[in-house]
Each structure stands twice: as structure tokens, then as C-alpha cells.
């Protein structure tokens, strides 16, 4: 069945490129299988001219970040603890500030990005979403400022791609929809840390009002 086209209005659309960093790709400590396969198609989409607004996020952890298993005595990566009343997955050390694995992937032309947003910079609070950090000590989820940036630029449509499908891209899409943006999740331009979670990711995104599409459905607005 032919999938319907999705029109990209360059005056109202933004491409959100999430955490395209070596540490999330094969060989990295928190790799999404086949994450490196996204480099070429995401690069081509960034250069396509479809988007005037391209926002890149960059995971940027202090070395002593609370989400690292190495900072929790007796704990191992991928175990879960309770942090500030919420479940917190403990991760291998990854995307540590200033390390090669935290750099934006060198094979993407970041000159196309109009904003680079660093997240997870607070050692005591994790941050998956581009829009809000995870819950902090006071129970709130502090905003990153992205909502205001997009609204100030007249953006109403957000198209999401990058890593990882089941965490940072998913949370960004859900939060973007909650902020009132028309969010489109480019499924073929994401990869998951845990591919077995794909069906639950699809269900959660649909419940949040996020549109799941493929990049081949994108078409430029005429006129």
C-alpha cells in the first residue's frame, strides 16, 4: 500500500536530529545496533533543503553523572534504581564532556544545524528529551528552552530522527507533542538500544499523538 506523503512547510517545520554521537553507535559503550547506518540518510536529509530549522541535540554528561552505574556502588549497567521517586536506568559511562565519543558525528555536516542543544549537563539529573530534563530533586522536569526557541521561530511541525529510538528520540517526541507541536517520528531514521521494545515504542508514541512515518513520505511544500 502506498503511504501518503507528508508535506514539510519550511516556514513552520523543524528537523530535530537527536544524539548522533559515536558513543551511541557500534563500538560505543551504549550502542544502538546499526546506529551508524543512519549517518548517510540523516546527512542527506539535513542537506536536502526541506528544512530551514535544524536542531541537533548532544548528550553531554559530566564524568560523575548520577545516571552512570560507575557512580552507584555495587550497581551494574542497565540495572534500575529509584531516583527522585522515579525509575532510573543506570548506564555505562557515555558521552562524557570533551571525549571523542561525545562529539557530534564527524560525517554529518553540522553547518546545516541552526541550533545545537547540549543536554544532561547537570550531574544530578538525567536528560533524555530535547524539551525537558528528567525529574529532578524537586519532582519537576526543567525545560531546556527548546520549546521557546521553536515558537519564536514560528515552528509548529517537528520531525524527529536519531538515537536512540526507545529513549531520547521517543521522549523528545512525546514531550514535543505535549507542548503542542505536530510531531512526526521518522521511524526509518531511528535505531533502538533495545529493538525488542519497538512495539511498545510504537504504542506509546501513538498514544501521545505522535505520527509515525518514513522519510520517503516527506515532500516539499509547493509554492
UniProtKB/TrEMBL annotation:
Its EC number is 3.5.1.19. Residues 13-214 form the Isochorismatase-like domain. GO terms for biological process: pyridine nucleotide biosynthetic process. One of its GO terms (molecular function) is metal ion binding. Keywords: Hydrolase, Metal-binding, Pyridine nucleotide biosynthesis. It comes from the Bacteria. Transmembrane segments: none annotated. Pathway: Cofactor biosynthesis; nicotinate biosynthesis; nicotinate from nicotinamide: step 1/1. InterPro entries: Isochorismatase-like_dom, Isochorismatase-like_sf, Isochorismatase_Nicotinamidase. It is an enzyme of class 3 (hydrolase). Belongs to the isochorismatase family. PANTHER family: LD05707P, PYRAZINAMIDASE/NICOTINAMIDASE. This is nicotinamidase. It comes from Alkalispirillum mobile. The lineage of its organism: Bacteria, Pseudomonadati, Pseudomonadota, Gammaproteobacteria, Chromatiales.
Amino acid at each position: 500500500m502506498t503511504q501518503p506523503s507528508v508535506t514539510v512547510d519550511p516556514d513552520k517545520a523543524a528537523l530535530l536530529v537527536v544524539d548522533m554521537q559515536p558513543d551511541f553507535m557500534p563500538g560505543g559503550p551504549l550502542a544502538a545496533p546499526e546506529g551508524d547506518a543512519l549517518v548517510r540518510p540523516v546527512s542527506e536529509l539535513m542537506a536536502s533543503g526541506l528544512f530551514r530549522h535544524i536542531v541537533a541535540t548532544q548528550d553531554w554528561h559530566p564524568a560523575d553523572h548520577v545516571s552512570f552505574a560507575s557512580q552507584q556502588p555495587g550497581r551494574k549497567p542497565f540495572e534500575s534504581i529509584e531516583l527522585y521517586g522515579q525509575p532510573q536506568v543506570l548506564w555505562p559511562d557515555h558521552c562524557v564532556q570533551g571525549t571523542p565519543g561525545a562529539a557530534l558525528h564527524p560525517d554529518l555536516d553540522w553547518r546545516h544545524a541552526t541550533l545545537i542543544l547540549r543536554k544532561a549537563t547537570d550531574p544530578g539529573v538525567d536528560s533524555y528529551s530535547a524539551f525537558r530534563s528528567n525529574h529532578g530533586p524537586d519532582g519537576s522536569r526543567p525545560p531546556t528552552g527548546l520549546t521557546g526557541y521553536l515558537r519564536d521561530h514560528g515552528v509548529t511541525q517537528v520531525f524527529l530522527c536519531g538515537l536512540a529510538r526507545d529513549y531520547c528520540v521517543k521522549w523528545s517526541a512525546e514531550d514535543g507533542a505535549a507542548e503542542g507541536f505536530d510531531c512526526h517520528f521518522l521511524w526509518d531514521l531511528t535505531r533502538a538500544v533495545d529493538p525488542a521494545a519497538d512495539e511498545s515504542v510504537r504504542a506509546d508514541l501513538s498514544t501521545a499523538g505522535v505520527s509515525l512515518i518514513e522519510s520517503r513520505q516527506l515532500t516539499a511544500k509547493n509554492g
